[in-house]
């Protein structure tokens, strides 16, 4: 019995090889063998390259990693797109639809902008005008910065990135490398990148919110970079506005930081904005961020994915200078009833009660605000609709230094709102200067009449703004119909 194995199909291969040899007059095995040698060579060169790269990385390559949630990340991507990637021709890129505000400006200049609001317009064509950006997204690129060659690497987040597109929602970290025994070339590069980012975004603020990443870890993520809100558009008693602006201005001054250090006081400042919904608490926080050129980090205790340890970590991750907006602190269930004084009576503890809809306890919140991990230099703004429900420990000086009470608007504030909404109605009209003055005077009279038709301290600014938005360009109609709106609102309240 023969022991030689006879593999099925080997006879067919043999006959095929014979056929090719006879008809084409050359041996196909030579090509197959050469191909195998080339593949082997490439594989060994690649693994030799990898070994060399890892060796160089340990000995003479300086490397910096930047996490996706760090503000530097956006700055680097922006800089790379505007400088290093401009001259390259990439074949694999990320396509991104950008709805820039410039586009909207262009729209108002176009014939569409002239149309009366009664005409119906299909926006399919208009949307097509939003421009498409093609951005290099992942991969490694060499670029030159001040005579130093650097390597920018941006891995795709999915493991088999060759077959699946990169997951844009969970950006992996960036890596910057250069041949140097010190980190200073990359440091200089990062400084340049940050300065560039500041120059480009001088009149806009970036809003960061929390978002769970692919591993369910809650992280900061920039949700919008938008033009900052002009503080003059926030309607609030002049004195209150001045008080908070002056206080923050003084706090941010470098001398003040030194003063705090000299006196051994933690360099922190907290503000509480309280008042009914829709009275401008969030609007003022975002306008303050704009005035002082700070980014804004918004935290909500009601975020279902927020745990106490996430909350404390997120607090410690904000940059030194920024506005941290902690919204609706009352809704966290952190009221007096839930607080148990500790043994020494100094540090209160709160238990999570069944009514509490957050995983963050009062002691966790206090810990985040002024624990060792909490950054000095940031501005904390807490907002609440029911300040009387807040625990004393949360609002004691050092945690809340200034309390701004927002109220439902007075006649004067309603008049200011009307003027602010219609300020540009006559400005764009082509009329002689004398007529313009007359129109402005008329607008002022209308504003006074409008405010007089509304009861004081009855509706929120958000309510009244909602009504005025029905008449964006018709101040007369807004004024004429306001009484019936008030009746509807009051009747609605009575019947509900
Ligand atoms: N004082 C105000 N000045 C200018 N606009 C205001 C003011 N109050 C409210 N608005 C407008 O009403 C809307 C809601 O305002 P905002 O979110 O600032 O209110 P809020 O007090 O933070 O409300 P909430 O307590 O519900 O969070 C926004 O569109 C804002 O422009």
UniProtKB/TrEMBL annotation:
Chain intervals for the UniProt region annotation (Disordered): 336-357
Keyword check for Phosphoprotein: no
Catalytic reaction equation(s): ATP + H2O = ADP + phosphate + H(+)
Biased composition (Polar residues): 344-357
PROSITE patterns, per the entry: AAA (PS00674)
Domain BCS1 N-terminal stretches: 36-234
Main location as per UniProt: mitochondrion
PANTHER family hit by this protein: BCS1 AAA-TYPE ATPASE
Family statement: Belongs to the AAA ATPase family. BCS1 subfamily.
One Pfam family hit: AAA_lid_BCS1
One Gene Ontology molecular-function label: ATP binding
Subcellular location: Mitochondrion inner membrane
Domain AAA+ ATPase: start-end pairs: 267-410
Keywords: ATP-binding, Hydrolase, Membrane, Mitochondrion, Mitochondrion inner membrane, Nucleotide-binding, Transmembrane, Transmembrane helix
Topological relation to the membrane, as annotated: Single-pass membrane protein
Entry protein name: Uncharacterized protein
């Amino acid at each position: 019995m023969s022991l030689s194995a006879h593999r099925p199909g080997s006879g067919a291969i043999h006959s095929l090889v014979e056929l090719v040899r006879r008809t084409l007059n050359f041996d196909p095995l030579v090509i197959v063998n050469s191909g195998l040698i080339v593949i082997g060579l490439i594989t060994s060169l690649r693994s030799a390259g990898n070994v060399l790269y890892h060796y160089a990385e340990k000995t003479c390559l300086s490397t910096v990693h930047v996490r996706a949630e760090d503000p530097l990340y956006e700055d680097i991507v922006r800089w790379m797109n505007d400088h290093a990637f401009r001259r390259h021709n990439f074949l694999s890129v990320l396509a991104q639809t950008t709805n820039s505000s410039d586009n909207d400006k262009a729209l108002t200049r176009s014939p569409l902008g002239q149309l009366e609001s009664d005409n119906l317009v299909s926006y399919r064509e208009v949307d097509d005008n939003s421009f498409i950006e093609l951005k290099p997204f992942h991969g490694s690129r060499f670029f030159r910065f001040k005579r130093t060659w650097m390597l920018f690497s941006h891995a795709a987040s999915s493991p088999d990135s060759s077959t699946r597109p990169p997951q844009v929602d969970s950006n992996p970290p960036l890596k910057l490398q250069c041949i140097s025994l010190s980190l200073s070339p990359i440091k200089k590069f990062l400084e340049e990148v940050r300065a560039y980012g500041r120059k480009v975004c001088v009149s806009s603020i970036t809003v960061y919110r929390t978002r769970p990443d692919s591993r369910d870890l809650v992280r900061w993520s920039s949700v919008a970079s938008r033009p900052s809100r002009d503080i003059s558009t926030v309607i609030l008693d002049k004195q209150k506005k001045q008080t908070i602006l002056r206080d923050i201005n003084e706090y941010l001054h470098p001398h003040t930081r030194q003063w705090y250090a000299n006196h051994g006081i933690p360099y922190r400042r907290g503000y509480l904005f309280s008042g009914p919904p829709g009275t401008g608490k969030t609007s003022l926080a975002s306008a303050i961020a704009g005035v002082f050129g700070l980014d804004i980090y918004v935290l909500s205790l009601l975020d279902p994915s927020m745990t106490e340890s996430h909350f404390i970590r997120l607090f410690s991750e904000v940059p030194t200078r920024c506005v941290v907006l902690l919204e609706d602190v009352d809704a966290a269930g952190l009221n007096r009833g839930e607080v148990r004084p500790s043994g020494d009576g100094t540090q209160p503890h709160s238990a999570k009660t069944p009514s509490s809809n957050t995983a963050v306890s009062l002691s966790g919140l206090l810990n985040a605000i002024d624990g060792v991990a909490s950054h000095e230099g940031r501005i904390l703004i807490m907002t609440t609709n029911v300040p009387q429900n807040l625990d004393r420990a949360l609002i004691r000086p050092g945690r809340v230094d200034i309390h701004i009470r927002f109220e439902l608007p007075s006649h004067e504030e309603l008049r200011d709102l009307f003027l602010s909404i219609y300020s540009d109605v006559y400005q764009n009209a082509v009329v002689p200067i004398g007529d313009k003055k007359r129109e402005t005077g008329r607008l002022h009279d209308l504003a006074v009449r409008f405010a007089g038709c509304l009861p004081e301290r009855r509706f929120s600014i958000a309510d009244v703004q909602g009504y005025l938005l029905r008449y964006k360009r018709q101040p007369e109609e807004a004024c004429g119909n306001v009484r019936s709106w008030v009746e509807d609102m009051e009747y609605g309240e009575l019947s509900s």
